[in-house]
Amino acid sequence: MQVGDFYEFFADDARLVAEELDLKVSEKSSHGSSYPMAGVPVDDLLPYLKTLVERGYRVAVADQRDSEDTTREITRVVTPGTLVGVTGADARYLATVVRGDDEVGLAFVDVTTGRFHVTGVDDTDDAFTELYRFSPEEVLPGPDLRDDDAFIERVRETTDATLTLHGSEAFAPGRATHTLREQFGDGALDSVGVESQGAAARAAGAAVAYVDETGAGVLASLTRIQSYGSTDHVDLDATTQRNLELTETMQGDRSGSLFDTVDHTVTSAGGRLLREWLQRPRQSLGELERRQESVAALASAALARERLRETLDEGYDLERLASRAVHGSADAAALLRVRDTLELMPDLADAVESDPQLADSPLGRVFGRFDRAAAADLRDTIDEALVDDPPSSGTRGLFRKGFDPELDDLIEEYEEAKGWLDDLAAREKQRLGVTHLQVDRNKTDGYYIQIGKSEADAAPEEYREIKTLKNSRRFVTDELEEKERRLLRVEEQRGDLERELLDDLRGTVADHATLLQEAGRALAELDAFCSLAVHAAENGWVRPELTEGDALDVEAGRHPVVEQTVEFVPNDARFADDRRFLVVTGPNMSGKSTYMRQTALIVLLAQVGSFVPADAARVGLVDGIYTRVGALDELAQGRSTFMVEMQELSNILHSATEDSLVILDEVGRGTATYDGISIAWAATEYLHNEVRAKTLFATHYHELTSLADRLERVANVHVAADERDGEVTFLRTIREGPTDRSYGIHVADLAGVPDPVVDRADEVLSRLREEKAIEARGGSGSSEPVQAVFDLGSGSFQQAASDGGSADEGPSEPSGPSEPSGPSEPSGPTLDDDQREVLEDITDTPLNDLTPVEALTKVQEWQDELEGE
């Protein structure tokens, strides 16, 4: 509640806010009782509001209309999604989510910039992807979702947003449609392809209603509703955005993310736009080529680019300034920032139009998106009104002389009265012949003349004494009181008029909100293009060739983040019609994951319109990028590592299409070996045969490398390692073909595992390899039963020869048990009846009709029978 120059909190609210904001609590006495009170300055409310709403509080603000008003009314309710006046590069979205009959509707509103996005998605999984992408400050679930505990819990997992249960009536189809038509016009929904009674419209209408009901005062800045769909942008689910570390690392840090690496923007609006581009890559070839041409022109025109960046650095965030003007919180300093930014437009336009490369690029049309003449008129209006250095508080002294004749007259009258008072002491000293006389003012006595006691007898008859002090006496005169009344009257009239003029000027700026938003977006785009061009020029990135076909051919590609910190070994990534699924093998820590992620990031950057870290690249547009890279336990949600892994795999298998890019790392490692191989094998076949997406699949199941012989579009690549004299060097080079070594013990040694453990692990590994070789030879004359080995590559079994030959020598059809042909001793091991039955079953089993999972199940059954279980 506003009380004079402070917003005060009382009673329990005072104690709570004092603890949250580190304020001092005082005791207020009234009518014989006391209560706690804590306050913050009216002119410095925003940072305190920001702290409270970021901690999940809703703050009701009751304003005092004027100094004599003793009544208060709540003028606004500030929530995490409706806080106005913030600065910085991060957007602040309010989100609404509605589940309809055949879609889930979402709306995202940034009240600080006027941005308004709406879409409909197939299900709540897709909705969570959008929530992760926009990272809203506040989420309003529709009435059909409020009792869905799983949905509510996952919102808390996916975002850091505050959940708010808003009135159900705002989500009603009829009311939502009416709200949208009032805000955007009758044809707005049809123009953006949103069904008037659908879930997306319900979400959008509820968002507008909520912003209105909280009293944020920014509805006039919501001038355009934008619809987007799955065909507009590349699908990046929340898992993929985390795995690729687009805006933050796995540890939650901005530093080390892709955005942090390529962000060279000099304005907060440019940074906001660049972040949006990275999180929402496009599928439109025409739009991407326009962006590429802009980046290419800026990359090659270094002098013009730096001139643009230096000029942009002097500007401010027009989108947010427009919102503040509409909200009524823009002071004179904010309006001057609008003027100063609009003043940059001619210089920016000249920098573009005077350089042939830039003028011939799409940048030459960037300033044609808004009315430059209207922008110049608005700039002149502000400049003619406000002084260059207005006071930081209050409204006095804001306007230039000559701007308003009535104000000029009041100022002249004020200055005349003030001058008379300022000179009064000097005149009276000379007239009365005294030295200890001064004219001053306080709240109790008003203006007064004070004379030292030793000279007080010189006071003339017209002086009326009002107070005697220890060393002086105070007097007033009729003329002094009249001048004071005149001064106070003029002060009040001047203050009222200046507030009125400031409101009018602010209203004029608010009326141009659409113009300022369009100009602000143009400047943000120019800044984002400059940022991408700077990074491309400084890091040797190249312009990729974009196609609507199925190409993906990267020559000497690099990881855009990793190359900033280490000497990077470039690698190719080549896909073709007969090469759409690459099985990637190689040692631990050799760079498999980096190689796969860099390929995904190169595709993503290409579909942002950026240059890419490679010597050359040809990229066919994809509709989605899906990754499964590592997993962590989510025990609080009852999900183990393996469960998370399987859910991520399930999402990919259901969501990816023939036009997608899929990155899989170590599928099936969270369970038993047979289970893991089976899942990895089956997933590979499904991706290859059914989904047909371009896929990179890293694995330590070397059995999967044989898929290249069975599936026509599978190829093997591996990360090379050099082993000499027991020392292993990771070459970090991708080569064709498979590998059969993972060098896990070597990695354990590098990680600092104690030497006794490493040495013992080496001994155990050697022994296991020897035993495996003996078993493969059928025991080498021992009484052990013959081992049947299933060859995943050929899909058939092999039986070790009785002479000790290896099953690795080549596949062969299983044969039945040998019957003795004479009195001579059998050359192979003696088999009992149970063993003979197993061999007969092996012989009779139609192996070519079995899936890999069924075959492995049969192997398990036969082993159990041979072991007597």
TrEMBL record:
The keyword ATP-binding applies. Pfam families: MutS_I (PF01624), MutS_II (PF05188), MutS_III (PF05192), MutS_IV (PF05190), MutS_V (PF00488). Gene3D superfamilies: 1.10.1420.10, DNA repair protein MutS, domain I, MutS, connector domain, P-loop containing nucleotide triphosphate hydrolases. Residues 831-843 have a biased composition (Acidic residues). GO terms for molecular function: ATP binding; DNA binding. Residues 660-676 form the DNA mismatch repair proteins mutS family domain. SUPFAM superfamilies: DNA repair protein MutS, domain I (SSF55271), DNA repair protein MutS, domain II (SSF53150), DNA repair protein MutS, domain III (SSF48334), P-loop containing nucleoside triphosphate hydrolases (SSF52540). SMART domains: MUTSac, MUTSd. InterPro entries: DNA_mismatch_repair_MutS, DNA_mismatch_repair_MutS-lik_N, DNA_mismatch_repair_MutS/MSH, DNA_mismatch_repair_MutS_C, DNA_mismatch_repair_MutS_clamp, DNA_mismatch_repair_MutS_core, DNA_mismatch_repair_MutS_N, DNA_mismatch_repair_MutS_sf. PROSITE patterns: DNA_MISMATCH_REPAIR_2. Residues 796-854 are annotated as: Disordered. Residues 812-829 have a biased composition (Low complexity). Signal peptide: none annotated. One of its GO terms (biological process) is mismatch repair. Belongs to the DNA mismatch repair MutS family. This protein is involved in the repair of mismatches in DNA. This is DNA mismatch repair protein MutS. It comes from Halospeciosus flavus. The lineage of its organism: Archaea, Methanobacteriati, Methanobacteriota, Stenosarchaea group, Halobacteria.
